[in-house]
């Protein structure tokens, strides 16, 4: 095993599983300049990596820290209180976005999110639709925490966790976490002389968390602890995580070729299945929609989305993004055929029942989607589940 000039054992190389959409999280440790403010030094290679990915037909969403560091550089202050850091983040957000725009060959879109935005189902769907549309348009979304309002998150330095949430939000296959260290070590790499590289984690255990219990670097906030939390969230959503050093040009270049020098944290299972699991096990007796036989057939046999034309009746009140049940109209057993996240609230849905998708906009004055429930948001229940 080779040892770096900095005394740390190096990571070997391993293939990165194939992917089409990724979230790349870039920590403050890679963007903060030694003398205050931000630097392009490492971001330039990461931006080139993103451009290479796009040239290969892949999509990347960046989750970038660095707003506080940028704000600090503008005011030359070492103020560290929570409100002060929130103010610094507000000051530094525009320069942070400007840095990525300078380095990107496509337009950069600023997306500010807080955990609240993704906990609320309606906002979750809106955020997801916006991010997907940005990718479809070929833009580069750069997400940061909405630090002005996200008090807890700023306190925790939680962009790692936000990146995992965004990865699930956009249905990414991998979460790439670029930081200032080569990967996960078995102990704090700077304090534990016996610390060894951990190239692969198949399941995050108490032992893995113990390895990462040490503090963060001088500039970053979460350290390995929040990176493992993020990887654990991603794994539960069926998304694998790569931890690697974004300061090492060779490591970043190798990623474009599908090679990882760092730590790979495996997912628990299939991505879409993981997302659908909670729908299947949600409590029964939710509000819902009744569909005609053609729609029931399309959902069950073809795995199609539910279109308004197949909906016969809307039962109860629900909001956009709520989990609802799908039943066959007129079925005396009232069997639940499927569950899914609905795109329209009950009031508006009643107005488009039985209508063609192309009429949605003229009836409602807006259109979120052509389907009432998109097939990715729908789980068809096997008959034994359908109480
Ligand atoms: N077991 C560990 N393996 C690797 N790094 C660790 C470990 N425990 C603590 N760290 C620290 O975590 C730091 C990276 O996290 P952080 O400073 O928050 O970076 P970022 O700004 O990229 O999020 C490393 O520089 C290292 O000092
Ligand atoms: N939202 C804050 C970053 C918080 C954070 O998680 O920082 P880091 O540990 O460097 O990823 C900012 O833009 O400065």
UniProtKB/TrEMBL annotation:
<dbReference type="GO" id="GO:0003723">
    <property type="term" value="F:RNA binding"/>
</dbReference>
<dbReference type="InterPro" id="IPR015947">
    <property type="entry name" value="PUA-like_sf"/>
</dbReference>
<comment type="function">
    <text>Catalyzes the transfer of a phosphate group to glutamate to form L-glutamate 5-phosphate.</text>
</comment>
<dbReference type="InterPro" id="IPR001057">
    <property type="entry name" value="Glu/AcGlu_kinase"/>
</dbReference>
<dbReference type="GO" id="GO:0005829">
    <property type="term" value="C:cytosol"/>
</dbReference>
<protein>
    <recommendedName>
        <fullName>Glutamate 5-kinase</fullName>
        <ecNumber>2.7.2.11</ecNumber>
    </recommendedName>
</protein>
<feature type="domain" description="PUA">
    <location>
        <begin position="287"/>
        <end position="373"/>
    </location>
</feature>
<comment type="pathway">
    <text>Amino-acid biosynthesis; L-proline biosynthesis; L-glutamate 5-semialdehyde from L-glutamate: step 1/2.</text>
</comment>
<keyword id="KW-0028">Amino-acid biosynthesis</keyword>
<dbReference type="InterPro" id="IPR001048">
    <property type="entry name" value="Asp/Glu/Uridylate_kinase"/>
</dbReference>
<dbReference type="InterPro" id="IPR011529">
    <property type="entry name" value="Glu_5kinase"/>
</dbReference>
<feature type="binding site">
    <location>
        <position position="147"/>
    </location>
    <ligand>
        <name>substrate</name>
    </ligand>
</feature>
<dbReference type="InterPro" id="IPR002478">
    <property type="entry name" value="PUA"/>
</dbReference>
<dbReference type="GO" id="GO:0005524">
    <property type="term" value="F:ATP binding"/>
</dbReference>
<keyword id="KW-0808">Transferase</keyword>
<dbReference type="InterPro" id="IPR041739">
    <property type="entry name" value="G5K_ProB"/>
</dbReference>
<dbReference type="GO" id="GO:0055129">
    <property type="term" value="P:L-proline biosynthetic process"/>
</dbReference>
<dbReference type="InterPro" id="IPR036393">
    <property type="entry name" value="AceGlu_kinase-like_sf"/>
</dbReference>
<dbReference type="GO" id="GO:0004349">
    <property type="term" value="F:glutamate 5-kinase activity"/>
</dbReference>
<feature type="binding site">
    <location>
        <begin position="221"/>
        <end position="227"/>
    </location>
    <ligand>
        <name>ATP</name>
    </ligand>
</feature>
<dbReference type="InterPro" id="IPR005715">
    <property type="entry name" value="Glu_5kinase/COase_Synthase"/>
</dbReference>
<dbReference type="Pfam" id="PF00696">
    <property type="entry name" value="AA_kinase"/>
</dbReference>
<dbReference type="Pfam" id="PF01472">
    <property type="entry name" value="PUA"/>
</dbReference>
<keyword id="KW-0067">ATP-binding</keyword>
<comment type="similarity">
    <text>Belongs to the glutamate 5-kinase family.</text>
</comment>
<dbReference type="InterPro" id="IPR019797">
    <property type="entry name" value="Glutamate_5-kinase_CS"/>
</dbReference>
<keyword id="KW-0547">Nucleotide-binding</keyword>
<keyword id="KW-0641">Proline biosynthesis</keyword>
<feature type="binding site">
    <location>
        <position position="25"/>
    </location>
    <ligand>
        <name>ATP</name>
    </ligand>
</feature>
<feature type="binding site">
    <location>
        <begin position="179"/>
        <end position="180"/>
    </location>
    <ligand>
        <name>ATP</name>
    </ligand>
</feature>
<keyword id="KW-0963">Cytoplasm</keyword>
<keyword id="KW-0418">Kinase</keyword>
<dbReference type="InterPro" id="IPR036974">
    <property type="entry name" value="PUA_sf"/>
</dbReference>
<feature type="binding site">
    <location>
        <position position="65"/>
    </location>
    <ligand>
        <name>substrate</name>
    </ligand>
</feature>
<feature type="binding site">
    <location>
        <position position="159"/>
    </location>
    <ligand>
        <name>substrate</name>
    </ligand>
</feature>
């Amino acid at each position: 095993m080779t040892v770096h000039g900095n005394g740390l054992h190096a990571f070997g190389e391993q293939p990165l599983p194939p992917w089409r959409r990724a979230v790349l999280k870039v920590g403050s440790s890679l963007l903060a300049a030694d003398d205050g403010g931000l630097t392009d030094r490492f971001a330039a290679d990461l931006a080139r990596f993103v451009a290479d990915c796009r040239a290969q037909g892949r999509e990347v969403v960046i989750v970038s820290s660095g707003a506080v560091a940028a704000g600090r550089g503008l005011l030359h202050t070492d103020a560290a209180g929570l409100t002060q850091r929130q103010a610094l983040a507000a000051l530094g957000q525009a320069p942070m976005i400007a840095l990525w725009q300078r380095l990107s060959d496509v337009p950069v879109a600023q997306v500010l999110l807080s955990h609240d935005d993704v906990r609320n189902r309606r906002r979750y769907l809106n955020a997801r639709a916006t991010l997907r549309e940005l990718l479809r348009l070929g833009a580069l979304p750069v997400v940061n925490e909405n630090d002005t309002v996200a008090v807890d998150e700023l306190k925790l330095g939680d962009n790692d966790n936000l990146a995992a949430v965004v990865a699930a939000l956009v249905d990414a296959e991998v979460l790439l976490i670029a930081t200032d260290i080569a990967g996960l070590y078995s102990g704090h790499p700077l304090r534990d002389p016996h610390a060894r590289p951990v190239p692969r984690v198949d399941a995050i255990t108490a032992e893995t968390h113990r390895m990462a219990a040490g503090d963060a670097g001088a500039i970053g906030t979460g350290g390995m602890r929040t990176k493992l939390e993020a990887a654990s969230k991603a794994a539960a959503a069926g998304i694998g995580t790569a931890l690697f050093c974004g300061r090492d040009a060779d490591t970043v270049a190798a990623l474009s070729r599908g090679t990882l020098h760092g730590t790979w944290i495996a997912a628990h299972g299939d991505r879409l299945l993981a997302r659908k699991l909670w729908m299947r096990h949600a409590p029964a007796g939710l509000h819902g929609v009744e569909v005609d036989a053609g729609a029931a057939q399309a959902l069950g046999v073809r795995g199609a989305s539910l279109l308004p034309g197949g909906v016969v009746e809307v039962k109860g009140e629900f909001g956009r993004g709520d989990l609802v049940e799908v039943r066959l109209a007129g079925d005396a057993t009232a069997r639940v055929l499927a569950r899914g996240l609905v795109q329209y609230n009950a009031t508006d849905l009643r107005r488009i029942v039985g209508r063609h998708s192309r009429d949605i906009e003229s009836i409602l004055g807006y259109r979120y989607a052509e389907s009432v429930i998109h097939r990715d948001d729908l789980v068809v229940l096997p008959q034994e589940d359908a109480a």
